[in-house]
Design goal:
Blueprint lengths: L24 H10 L4 H15 L6 E3 L7 E2 L5 E2 L3 E3 L1 H4 L6 H4 L4 H15 L4 H11 L6 H16 L7 H25 L3 E2 L2 E2 L1 H5 L1 H21 L3 H22 L9 H27 L3 H28 L2 H4 L5 H4 L5 H7 L3 H8 L7 H11 L2 H19 L7 H15 L3
Antiparallel strand pairs: 1-4, 2-3, 5-6
Helix pairs in contact: 1-2, 5-8, 6-10, 7-8, 7-12, 7-20, 8-10, 8-11, 8-12, 10-11, 11-12, 12-13, 13-19, 13-20, 16-18, 16-19, 17-18, 19-20
Length: 418
Amino acid sequence: MMSMTCHNLLDPVACGCSSNASFDRSSVRKCANANTRSKNCRDFAARRLLCFRRDIASRRVSSTRTPNTLLDDSGIAQSPSQVLDLKEELRGPVSLPNLFEVVADDLQTLNQNLRTIVGADNPVLMSAADQIFGAGGKRMRPALVFLVSRATAEIMGLKELTREHRRLAEIIEMIHTASLIHDDVLDDSDMRRGKETVHQLFGTRVAVLAGDFMFAQSSWYLANLENLEVIKLISQVIKDFASGEIKQASSLFDCDTELEEYLIKSYYKTASLIAASTKGAAIFSGVDSNIKGQMYEYGRNLGLSFQVVDDILDFTQSAEQLGKPAGSDLVKGNLTAPVIFALEKEPKLREIIESEFCETGSLDEAILLVKSCGGIERAQQLAKEKADLAVQNLRCLPQSTFRLALEDMVMYNLERID
């Protein structure tokens, strides 16, 4: 799975009008909210956005990450990529409610269907599912399915999403939920998004069974889609989850973990599902292989950027903001990007980690070392590099409110560490 085919990027079509420096992004969102399925609204938004977006490629800043070569997602050294300049690119804070306005009806339908899909045969399993479905999840993955579905459906002249598009979003959310339940068991986590985890409330046995049930239920619905390409794509994701957990378990407290290994593990645990979500949506729209490939790359790069940002926040946010103790990954021996970068400069950090934080206050000392050695800043740069690639992957799509939301999803992620 980690060996990806390189696709040529498509340049945006020329709009034939001058760049409008006073472009108001919120006006497009308001228009989209009032007329989500109105072709006139979408055409208006596309014309306005094209003027605003045509010079994006020229507004970049050079990477400051050292050394002067970077690893691509296969761990191959490449020259430094160009990264997004948030100060120029953003025209105000991006919020998820605004991002998801154009697919709000789709998400509402999904929320109504989730309980039905899980089934009410077993009250305990239903209670377990309710606990995590209602634990403040952002529904980011199904939202991405809907956004890519609508963006690519327009290319093919589809007026409405298909049953397969909607079922894919539900399957993706079930798989994500099942993986969270199992992750909390493996990590022995008591809290998830500020609430008690399923295994804390119902016990490990029920949590494992609830996760297994949702994996099985999602697989059954997946098979009934009767699309071999999508079946293979999503089945690989479930395999990747297991591979990611095995890689993580086999490298705990290993200070020789390299960035390449971290990126592979992050792909397995996070980016694989997001990439499958976005490519699967494109498949059901019937677009050509180049666009399907670019949508996969978009999801992969966005997923990697999200994981790096999450790993940064584990050091920079409070327990209240995280919904779990700060530094929880580090104390369990899971070495993430900020730690890997800091280890290159601070031998003392290696001593603390290899002692598995046996001394009082050693975790706090390790966190301070990660921050003082530039680990956070270099991880931020890595997240921005992946984000820049994700934006480039969207160039194959026509300008629309849906493409704008996909671009803003990248910006929203980076704003979490800005």
